[in-house]
Amino acid sequence: MHIGEVAARTELSLRSLRHWDEVGLLRPSGRSDGGFRLYTEGDVERILLVRRMKPLGFTLDQMRVALRDIELLLDEGPSTEHGQEARERLDGVLHEAARRREGLERQLAMADEFIDLLSRRLS
Q1: Residues 6 or more apart from 101 whose CB is under 8 A from it?
Q2: Fewer beta carbons below 10 Å: N end or C end of the chain?
Q3: Longest C-alpha distance within the chain, in Å?
Q4: Are the C-beta atoms of 9 and 44 separated by less than 8 Å?
Q5: How do residues 13-39 score in pLDDT, each as one tens digit?
Q6: Which residues contact 42 (CB under 8 A, 6 or more apart)?
Q7: Radius of gyration of the chain (CA)
Q8: Which has the closest alpha carbon to 107: 58, 57, 51, 53?
């Protein structure tokens, strides 16, 4: 698939996809004869994973490591030494994601309180 189709499917901008390619976070699987980026379904799955990590405030490096560890687990499985290390790192990412989500829930609750308060005052 070309970058425009991927952008539409993932609800990301072309700019974001190009940036992630340039910084080495998510490289497309190929290029056309004309040099255009070509993406696979697997690429789209990785893009969606990053898209889900982004609101939680993970850095590009943290996302890069998580993607690498997920690929490592898929390739080697959890029973190898490298697979076990990747699993341990991903377990840390999971716990950090849950902690960050709790913070977002608190912020959302405060936003809801503000909206409710303002709505009552304007009624």
Answers
A1: 56
A2: C
A3: 63
A4: yes
A5: 999 999 999 999 999 999 999 999 999
A6: 29
A7: 19
A8: 57
Domains parsed from the chain with CATH numbers? 1-51 (1.10.1660.10), 57-123 (no CATH)
CA distances from 52 to 4, 37, 75, 110, 119 (A): 20, 22, 22, 22, 31
Map residue 34 onto helix, strand or coil: coil
Say how many CA atoms lie within 13 Å of 43 toward its Cβ: 20
pLDDT exceeds cutoff 90 at 1:
yes
Q: What is this structure's pTM?
A: 0.83
Cα–Cα distance measured from residue 60 to residue 92, given in angstroms and rounded to the nearest whole number: 16
